[in-house]
Specification:
The protein is an alpha+beta fold and about 160 residues long. Helices cover about 55% and strands about 10% of the residues. The protein contains 6 helices and 4 strands; from the N terminus they run E-E-E-H-E-H-H-H-H-H. It is elongated and about 75 Å long.
């Protein structure tokens, strides 16, 4: 079991990372998220879990700083779903959608890595073979190629037909 890193939030709003015995900033906490390190932010006095609030604060700062992920319309729709019967359904939908998106990103990175790891000549050969197979399938030449491989030679159109001799 992995240890969860504990970050304490003090009344003066400072965050203290107990693993490194040092005060940290929201940027440092964001780095923990990006590095996939499990952590929990707790109130130093009450030990209440403040992790969600800190994560929302990081999201808020990211949304203000650069190119936002959430449009105003999307945020308004999310706010409207609070307290309604669809809140649990929306939560489940967003979590499943994020899992699917992350899996697609992982597969894309894996395919890209495989593509980069293979030799350029091998890649070109694979592309050429796929394109040839598709072209043959579309033009009906695949059947003729199969007959040729079976030992039959293609007929010369200028050669007389043996059946009519």
């Amino acid at each position: 079991m992995t240890d969860v890193r504990i970050i304490k939030k003090y009344p003066n709003r400072r965050l203290y990372d107990t693993a490194i015995s040092s005060y940290v900033t929201l940027v440092d906490v964001k780095t923990l998220v990006l590095d996939g390190i499990d952590f929990k932010v707790i109130d130093a006095k009450t030990e209440a879990d403040l992790t969600r609030g800190i994560l929302l604060q990081i999201i808020s700062e990211e949304e203000e700083g650069g190119e936002p992920i959430f449009s105003s319309d999307l945020l308004a729709r999310i706010i409207r779903s609070y307290g309604g019967s669809e809140q649990n359904m929306l939560t489940s939908y967003l979590e499943k959608s994020m899992e699917l998106w992350l899996e697609q990103q992982r597969m894309f990175r894996e395919r890209t890595r495989t593509l980069m790891d293979s030799s350029p000549l091998g890649m070109l050969t694979q592309f050429a073979e796929r394109n040839l197979a598709m072209w043959q399938a579309m033009s009906g030449l695949n059947q003729d190629a199969g007959r040729r491989r079976g030992g039959q030679q293609p007929k010369d159109p200028d050669e007389p037909n043996d059946k009519h001799r």
